[in-house]
Structure prediction request, 427 residues.
Amino acid sequence: MTENNISEIMEHDLHAYVDGQLTAARREEVEKYLLENPEQAKLVQSWTEQNAALKNLYRPTQLSGDRELVREAARARSGFVKTVIQVAAAILIFMAGSVLGSYITLNLGDRENTPQYVQTLGEASRAGFAIYASEVRHPVEVNADQEEHLVTWLGKRLGTKFKAPKLQKEGFNLVGGRLVPFAGKPGALLMYENVAGERLTVLIGQQPSNVETGFRFVQEGNIRTFYWIDGEFGYALSGSIERPLLQVLAREIYRQIEVT
Amino acid sequence: MRKTEIKILGLLPLLRRYARSLSQNEADAEDLLQDCLEAAFTGQDRWRGDNLKSWLMTIMTNYIRYRYRRTRNTPLTVDIDTADDIAAPQSERDPLERDILERAIDLLPEENRSVLMLIVIEGYSYAEVSEMLKIPIGTVMSRLSRARKKMTETLQGHNIIPLRRQS
Prediction:
């Protein structure tokens, strides 16, 4: 392999490499090039992962009404030679059908498997932090000095046994908590503070489906949020502190809330 | 059932996959699929008898480009009859990842999205896509490149950290 050949590798070669559309010889050249160009190798890696994720997302699917679907479509073709009366009749039937149809439709929300609450969790947490963390006099409804009462009360409203995560080791003390609306149900918002006066909020809300997810991170303005779903509850940690510390705290909360 | 109908019935699962990869939700995908089939039967004289699957996918791609202008924010409804089928579980993926991925896909312009899907999901070569969509191969490449860059950009804004509890 000469320097010249290697320098000839262009972006379209990298795409073709990812999509398995290169000849064996060219493939080898690209592989050598990637060994010497870690930045490009990273790009290729991310495209490869993207391809895998896309392939996993869409699968061939057969439905029970498929035969009818094809028949109907084939029949629609003969509509070409329909007389005017037949067309008029079809329009009438269609109109009746759409009126009836509008009565029997069922709203399924967004895509199944990607429920709205996934998004809601991060947004609600960010809003909770933005609204309450800046409150000087009334950041919480119940102060940490009544922790026992706080957790019993919020636990009752959430419908679960409930403990406030302890984050002293990481330098954050419980300020207290409040009941907040979350996705139409009661949710709990806990607030923590360190000696520098930096605050964090932890939102806990009920989740309609029992799943487990990874941590998701979002940042909007200077508010950073980690959120995740663990069984029947969703959790979101928001704050303005740096991401690495926030992540440590999120993991700590996750660890402490382990279902027993 | 006639011969073509049986052939199309056999291709339906693959056609549905492609329709879903072009649509924002499964109800839209079913509409697209149905419209594509009707267009196919209406214009079947134009089919030259070669690759039926490619021909149908080309029709679908053109449909999404010319007929369906983005209709975001329309309420999503599904007939009760089809709701059972549609609610079937599709993937074991982490719903957060799935959600982010779908959002990233939905942000792609239609023309880049269809090129990406024809290549990645349907496994067509660049030359075949160029032939199917009647666009130069350079255009195929630039659409593919734009789709990938846009996806990467969106996905990097929402990174997920895989999570395993120590036991």
Observations:
- Confidence is low (pLDDT under 50) at residues 79-87, 97-115 of chain A.
- DSSP finds nine helices and seven strands in chain A.
- Chain A has three domains: 3-57, 66-99, 116-256.
- Chain A touches chain B through 63 residues (CB under 8 Å).
